[in-house]
Amino acid sequence: xxxxxKVWRQKNSKSEGKMVSYNVKDVSPDMSFLEMFDVLNExxxxxxxxxxxxxxDCREGICGMCSMYINGRAHGPKTGITTCQLHMxxxxxxxxxxxxxxxxxxxxxxKDLVVDRGAFxxxxxxxxxxxxxTGGVPDANAxxxxxxxxxxxxxxxxxxxxxxxxxxxxxxxxxxxVAAKITQLALLPQGQVERASRVEKMxxxxxxxxxxxxxNTGACSVECPKEISQDTIAKMNRxxxxxxxxxxxx
Amino acid sequence: MTKLxxxxxxxxxxxxxxxxxxxxKLVNPANKRKYDxxxxxxxxxxxxxxxxxxxLGYNVKAFCFQDSPRRAHSxxxxxxxxxxxxxxxxxxxxxxxxxxxxxxxxxRAREGNVYRLAEVSVNIxxxxxxxxxxxxxxxxxxxxxxxxxxxxxxxxxxxRGQTGQQLLLGAxxxxxxxxxxxxxxxxxxxxxxxxxxxxxxAKGIVTRDLVTGEITSHAGHAVLLCTGGYGNVFYLSTNAxxxxxxxxxxxxxxxxxxxxxxxxxxxxxxIPVSGDHQSKLTLMSExxxxxxxxxxxxxxGDKRNPSEIAEDExxxxxxxxxxxxxxxxxxDVASRNAKEQCDADKGVGSSGLAVxxxxxxxxxxxxxxxxxxxxxxxxxxYAQITGENPYKNPMRIYPAVHYTMGGLxxxxxxxxxxxxxxxxxxxxxxxxxxxxxxxxxxxxxxxDGYFVIPYTVxxxxxxxxxxxxxxxxxxxxxxxDKVKAQTKKFLSIKGTKSVTHYHxxxxxxxxxxxxxxxxxxxxxxxxxxxxxxxxxxxKNVKVLxxxxxxxxxxxxxxxxxxxxxxxxxxxxxxxxxxxxCGGHFREEYQTEENExxxxxxxxxxxxxxxxxxxxxxxxxxxENLKFETVKLTQRSYK
Amino acid sequence: xxxxxxxxxGNLGQKLIMSLTGLFLISFLLEHLxxxxxxxxxxxxxxxxxxxxxxxxxVIQAAEYVLFGxxxxxxxxAAIITVKNKKARPQGYAYNKPSENSSWFSRNMGLSGSMVxxxxxxxxxxxFVPHKITNTATMTIYDDAIITFGNVPYTLFYVAAMFLxxxxxxxxxxxxxxxxxxxxxxxxxxxxxxxTAFAILVPAGFAAIPLYICFIR
Lengths: 250, 638, 217
Hints:
Chain A is α+β, with helices and mostly antiparallel strands. Helix content of chain A is 35%, strand content 12%.
């Protein structure tokens, strides 16, 4: 099939960008969306035009690197998948596809479709961990955890840090990302010691990065490739209020 | 000729590590902060090493080419991680894990290293659980296990089909904590392009900032390469697009020997290729073989729909040939058998390059919901990629390049032949022999990073003393200039063919002649083809854009240039090894039943290659493998 | 109390204030609707007596300040959060399809809230100001209501405002519980249903009164 692809082109973080239209021919429905971009880029190179920069790595939906806003939605028209898992059979011959980078002040554009998601790392650095050094830990089976809690913690822990939640939220809020980590560790016995300080620090960092506030539209969970639930955000709020009311951190 | 000293401690295998740990020199706690350690790569090995060394008090600088350390390709490992916990009371032990791994590796791994790996495997699970890794659990709250290929006990710990992700996020969280505390300085979107050596020892690296293009260098008392494997030399593999050999290869060209490069693992359960556009292959966890049955039609060229093929017209070839292991034979055996069936024109699907992996019996026995709970995400993945429903039709699978057992040669301390340069995880060669067992890669990456390097690196550092590395030494400028010159060279060729074109061509040569089955004739031909490809590359490659900006073609050009050179060495190594073992199957050397035929008299050695200069033949060094505990036998999974 | 002001100044603190004031205003709506039902009686005595009670009871007087406070805080914080959220995405998408992942009501709380605010000002000017503040009313509040709602354009304006209130409540009711962290598979489905029922029934009840007065009575 033949397609028209409108892509955001921006030389670097300082320059202005604009949408540019390209025609892509002979697209196979079995191609992944990124493979369609490979074909487009090969074509651009052969014409002497600079290829489109875009983030991608594992191409199997787990590294969280790919990050395209396709036809008005994070990771494109299907739910529960990343851009690299989107296949061209989801489109029709003659379609026009609009592709933009994630838009958020906390995710500045580096080039074309590549954005800087360092803010996510800084939020984790602030407290998204259990403070245990290597060695000197108890036997793994010394900490029994109910299967229900372990499964719920796992569901939250599946977050791939792609940023689709921020991209699709009308407020560019990072609540779902932050809540997923807080929920995982708050559900597990290992996370209890730092439970209050963790939520305080991570939420403070989230604010310092300039993400917006959650207004509970639910868009993030719908667009999340791992379908992380709104339950986590409610849990984060609960943890936060409890921590603020009871923590010894004045 | 350099004598290879593996530094394996003397004494019974079970006491080697304990004894060695005691003999290693220590760095006193107050002195640790005077040492700078460079860690390249932030996968399981790199993240765990960086975090652990920072916890001990060293200054750590960590580097990754991705936008965040959390994205390293360890994240994609699905099935699980082995550990000799014997929680299932099914007869597992450290010795059994050791034995299975040596045997699974077709007796081409070092006993000492493998035993240590099995020994620390139990600590890894404890460590990960303490970090909050949500492993699968039983209703009673204790950890669950599953079985994996090449073993008859259930020792694999897992987190649904995303074990690698959960383990990496655990290591990443430990690393993040140290970054937050200021003990690790993290450089993401930064690629190592050369090693800096002073007086024959590793003292730093040259890097390129992938956003600004700036080329600079970093000094350190030791350099740890945790840069993963080189499966992308085949173009199509289950590796991430960015996975590359550049850091290891440039270290090789500075004097680090490269060991057993031809040992590559072809994973049996991948989704078959669908067309020329394909950029990567997707693996389906080996755990699927626990419940899925592999079959092809008995009749040659039978193109009927699988549902129309009656039970007695199907050949469950793994169950037939290997009754005691059945569908759970090791990866190399499963892959080779699938290839054999397809070569006999019994392959299925439009390309004929696939076999069925059928869950109909499991669904009948356990119910669809049970199967969904165990493998749901894998089934979804299959459905997305192929557009078919695996609950209704059997999956089609075909082997794909997955892991490389070869890598930089390291001694028992994980040090390469360059003093101060270490290689951890998939980047080294040491633990898996000629074939890696499932769920052992995660184990090795974390073992090296959490529990081996923190001891061994201290021994070296205590020896050289804490005197700061002289950043003004001309070696830094020299190495930087060399990297800058290469960048300039790529941009100045202004040829006609894209970097991807060359990568794809290289992949085709490697897969055809140095893939699942190799022979002397093909390998000799491949040598010539790669030589031509290399010449053409340096004449006609087209890299657009500039050096001082984010330039993905330029990044790739450097990686592909190194892959081409590595490809040549792999072919050389495969040609040298006149035997079949594990993932290295030379068609000339097989038993009457078409199994791999080892030649222990002549090839029970590690082939370590020394770089002798551009376009010169590399020199082979042999490290003879000593088997004091395990008796060498013909591997049998019948 | 530095910790409290700090806790309430962040996104989550501000959202807490929004949800608590929102729930408080919701409770007021219910009270207001029940008393308005007295307008349906053909005799205005009860309504007038109720109005007189509301006007003079000291407890109610005090509560009135709290109510106004609730409105003002809800509006101010809405403005603060909206400004902050706009800043979080200075450059929007050239092509966006938010309808695929969220409801119109949930994304347009600012719009529906602003419209309700305009209505509120008109509404206060019609009844509260002349009867309570300036005491310039020339008739009983019951008679005033009958006459005002007899005016067709006014009644239609009132009904339109109730539609917007319904939109606002439909998201606001359940969102308040979500913000407070009160979410559980056991009761969240009930809260959502209750919220929708409240968002339909309460504004419908309000709208029914002028409609009855204007067109049926």
